[in-house]
Amino acid sequence: MDYNKIKTVGQLKAAGYQSRSIKEEVRSNLVEKLKSGEKVFEGILGFDQTVIPDIQRALLSSHNILLLGLRGQAKTKIARLLTQLLDEYIPIITGSELNDDPFHPISRFGLDQIEKHGEDTPIHWISKDERYVEKLATPDVSVADLIGDVDPIKAATLKLPYSDERVIHFGLVPRSNKAIFVINELPDLQPRIQVSLFNILQEGDIQIRGFKLRMPLDIIFIFTANPEDYTNRGSIITPLKDRIESQILTHYPTDIKIAQQITSQEAKLSEDQQKNIEVPEIARELLERVVFAARESEYIDEKSGISARMSITAFENLMSSAERRMLINNEKNTTLRLTDFWGVIPAITGKAELVYEGEQEGPHNVAIYLIQDAIEEVFDNIFPKPDEDSDEYEVLRMWFSSGNSIHLGADDQDKEFRIKLDAVPGLKKIVEGLVKDPKHHYFFMEILLNGLASKEVLNFQLDRQKIEFNDLLSQNFGNLDQDLFN
Asked: What is the pTM of this model?
């Protein structure tokens, strides 16, 4: 259909256009995509067997939807992708603030235009992107914001009494006719405001300041909510929840590989970072294990959740840590190091709600514990378990017990960094026997040292700019000597 040539209601009829409700439109387009095998929610990962089938069933049933899940579970992103199921363009009566269907107008303006101009009534084509409206629910949202109110200025300008419906200023919901309307964080909406949505969801009509308007609004409602908000900030009142036909539970990724894909897809990296920084695959896995550890940590409130934004921003910080080091040392390229992970701490501390025990430990220490837990888990998956009766790490033990130590600085040049690790006898040999890719040997050498420290084979001391590894017993004796002299 040539949208540029069809400009009146008469031309629209002659072209054989048939209007349909937005729910019929979405259902029909979804049916076609499912038949053709086309991916409906491009970029949504980890929901193929859970959330996405539930959403498809709800849309095939012409339901309004409540997406219920913790922070950072792609609820808003899913809602925005629903525009993929809308027609490219639909016609409305030109000048209508309620997106009046040319064949079935619902506003006084639309009805007057049809009565006045008949088939010469001008029409305007709106794109699918114009048919998406999103509102963040906050305690200060009013009925006037959502539904509408009498507008004294309009009454004065048009010289009309307040009893004339033309003095009404329509809110966001009526102006979203023929569109997808999303209310994020629904529990934050005050109960009396939630009540104003009852009739719209059930009967499709609205009432404004005593005006009984029979307006069969044509809207798909998508609501999002966080279970934590039910107790902390508010709740969804039962009658409203009863009118939302499908409630769909979202979740965090359950698989490390899926989590890695999400992080890689969503992280915003500069071209220089992507081109000049080598990222070992094990570093990506380790980062996700930090986030998985956070979701299971006794120091973090599990009801609050750990957003996927933690891993995304942590990866961005990780890359920036490597880039900063590269720039300081005037190097053209570099490889991520384990020491770079201490640069992701700010991305962790800002996104974890701590319980009492976590507050006692402090956010910075909790972040370090999470990184250490993840390192230990990776170590266990790759390296043999330290055993006093085994000699895998005997050369390492002997070297450190002889009073030797190693300092790895956050800003060490690549050459200096490699020289320090190569100086530890037996360290590289152990890694070479287990890791094939020589480009990443030094990252695994760091993991080995940190893993042995976590197993209390070695001692390590950490500050913001360096890590020192030394012998566990000599360190303990050194502390004992200090205590005796003090």
From this structure: 0.86
